[in-house]
Amino acid sequence: MSEINQQPSTKNNQPSTNWFASWFDTKYYHILYKDRDYKEAQTFMDNLTHYLNLPEEAKILDLACGKGRHSVYLNSLGYDVTGADLSENSIKEASKFENEKLHFKVHDMRDVCDSKYDAIFNLFTSFGYFENDADNLTTLKAIKHSLTEYGFACIDFMNVDYVIDNLVPEEVKTVENIDFHIKRYVKDNHIFKEIDFEDNGEKFHFTEKVQALRLTDFEKMMEEADIYLLDIFGNYKLQPFYKNQSERLIMIFK
Ligand SMILES: C[S@@+](CC[C@H](N)C(=O)[O-])C[C@H]1O[C@@H](n2cnc3c(N)ncnc32)[C@H](O)[C@@H]1O
Prior knowledge:
The protein is of the alpha/beta class. The protein has a domain at 38-159 and 213-253: Rossmann fold. Helices cover 28% and strands 33% of the residues. It is built from eight helices and twelve strands. The protein has helices at residues 19-23, 27-32, 38-52, 69-76, 88-94, 133-145, 160-165, 215-224, and strands at residues 4-5, 59-63, 80-85, 102-106, 117-122, 147-158, 170-175, 178-187, 190-199, 202-211, 229-233, 248-253. Strands 4-3-2-5-6-12-11 form a seven-stranded mixed β-sheet, with helices on both faces. Helix 4 (69-76) links the parallel strand 2 (59-63) and strand 3 (80-85). Helix 3 crosses helix 4. It starts with a strand and ends with a strand. 31% of the residues are buried. Residues 20, 24, 64-66, 69, 85-87, 90, 108-110, 123-126, 129 line the site of S-adenosylmethionine.
């Protein structure tokens, strides 16, 4: 049996590439999550654009867009959309949908964009990955700087308290004949997901590690980034946020 494939390691056994740069760029990430709920994503985009009252010609940035499921739908509503993600493979896939008002680019969310947007969306827990806390703040500041004067941003994060209360410690998910053995646990204020599987006789191991950021953490960072938090919702229907019951922590800011 071959060695286990995972994030590349340095001599000190420290990952030389961040987990988010490698795992999200593999085909296995997309296989494991292939049953993502498009309908729910679309309902969320309908509700969010309606709530923000975005004009028809609005320019939207889908920051950490993955393969562009939200971008494509937002463009179908008539908006001028740019999807940006660190994963080259995801952007390559998403680019197949490009048109005059839909573009994709490889971009690190910590960097300020070269254009300004009327709305910037960071969706489906695409935050809290960095080893260094300062990078969270850098990302928030980059979002703020990439907004137009009257622009709004939205971060759609997990509700950590709900996730911890409902954590499934172990499960096996079979997708496209691959058995993904998944372990979940909380350690050092992060939520970990260890993913083990075998494909064509090769063993793979990946780790997802997301910072357990609560509303109070975001409030502190936003204050530091001189960001104004306007509204908070607890699910994709944009119903109120309740710390112990809501599935999502959806923050609207400018
Ligand atoms: C949980 S996925 C969500 C993808 C997409 N928003 C969706 O809902 O399908 C997180 C995404 O964040 C991207 N990502 C991770 N770190 C990033 C960074 N520093 N800059 C830009 N994108 C990043 C990953 O490549 C991945 O596509």
